[in-house]
């Protein structure tokens, strides 16, 4: 696992807290671990290797070539559109 450096505070209901704590006890893990796993499962766990491979695959495509900056801009725009921002 990578070094954890970001803190996030989330408000949940008492019922959600009970479910998380029960599942954490059942697995012998922490609630924080369950939350991180749920985030990775729902939104994916993209590694630097995944990113490098994706850039290589895009670069191998025929057609117009984009710079890394152009690709990042397009990706950011798509993420914002998907998030409704």
Structure report:
The model has no long low-confidence stretch (mean pLDDT 86). By secondary structure, the protein is mainly α. It has helices spanning 14-27, 31-43, 48-60, 68-83. It is 66% helix and 0% strand. Helix 1 crosses helix 2. It has 4 helices and no strands. The protein has 2 domains: 14-43, no CATH class; 48-83, no CATH class.
Count of separate DSSP helical elements: 4
Poorly predicted runs of 5 or more residues: none
Distance between the termini: 30 Å
The overall pLDDT, averaged over residues, is 86
The radius of gyration computed from the alpha-carbon positions, rounded to a whole number of angstroms, is: 18 Å
Number of domains: 2
Shape descriptor = elongated
Strand tally: 0
Strand content: under 5%
Structural class: mainly alpha
Q: How do the SSEs run, as a string of H and E? A: HHHH
Percent of residues in helices: 55-70%
| Biggest β-sheet description | none
């Amino acid at each position: 696992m990578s070094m954890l450096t970001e803190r996030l505070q989330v408000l949940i209901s008492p019922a959600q807290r009970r479910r998380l704590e029960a599942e954490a006890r059942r697995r012998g893990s922490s609630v924080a671990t369950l939350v991180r796993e749920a985030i990775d499962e729902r939104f994916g766990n993209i590694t630097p290797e995944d990113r490098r491979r994706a850039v290589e695959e895009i670069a191998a495509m025929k057609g117009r070539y984009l710079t890394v900056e152009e690709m990042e801009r397009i990706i950011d725009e798509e993420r914002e559109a998907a998030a409704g921002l």
